[in-house]
Amino acid sequence: MEPGQTVAVVGHTGAGKTTVVNLLMRFYELDSGRIRVDGTDITDLPRDALRAKFGVVMQDAWLFSGSIRDNIEYGSPGAGDAEIVAAARASHVDQFVRALPGGYATVLGNDGDSLSRGQRQLISIARAQLAGRSILVLDEATSSVDSRTEVQIRQAMQQLRQGRTSFVIAHRLSTVRDADLILVMDQGRIVEQGTHQQLMAKGGHYLKLYEAQFARREQPTPDQEPEQ
After folding, report:
1. What confidence tens digit (pLDDT) does each residue in 58-75 have?
2. Measuring CA to CA, which residue among 131, 84, 83 is closest to residue 105?
3. Number of domains comprising the chain
4. N or C: which end of the chain has fewer CB atoms below 10 A?
C-alpha cells in the first residue's frame, strides 16, 4: 500500500483479521515472507521503534484512572493545552467534555465507566490524533452505540486518517465503502481484494458478507410486528 492509503480488512470472525495487525507490529513473528515499512524489513527494527510508528484505536477503548486531559495527553506526553484541545475538537470530544462540571479536569475511574462507550471511544481517538503517528490501525468500535454517536465516531476516524496510512479492521461493511483497497479474508488467507464497487460486482465472498449483514439488520426484532 502507498503512503496515505486506507486498506480495510474484512471477513468472518476468526478469518485472520487481527492476526494481520499482530504481524504488522511484531506481536507475532512471521514464519515466511517479509513485511517492509518504507523499504525497511520490520525484523531489522527494534520492536519499540517499530511500534512507535503506529497509532492504534481498538474496539474496546482503554482509559486509565486520571483526568480526561491526562488520558488524551498520554498520546504525546508533555503536550500543551492548545494541542490537547485541538485533538479533542477534531475527535468530537471537546463539546461533551466542556459540558461536564470538571471539564478536562474531570477524573475518570474504573476504565472511564462514568462515560458512555461512545465517549470513551472518542477520547481514545483524540489520544491517537494527538500522538500523530504515521500509520494507523483502527479496529472500528461503532457497535453498541446509538446512531448519533456512531456518526461522530466515523467522522472522528475519518479525520484521524487524513494524511496517514491506515489499516481498518471492519466489522460494519458500510463503514469501508470509501477505502482505497478492501482485503477479504477467509481461513487465514486473502481470498479477494479490490474496491467496494469492484468486489460487489464480482459477486463473491464480499457480496455474501455484505448481503448477510444487511439481511440481519432488516430482520424485525422480537418486539416489532412484521409488516402485513
Report:
1. 878 889 999 999 999 999
2. 84
3. 2
4. C
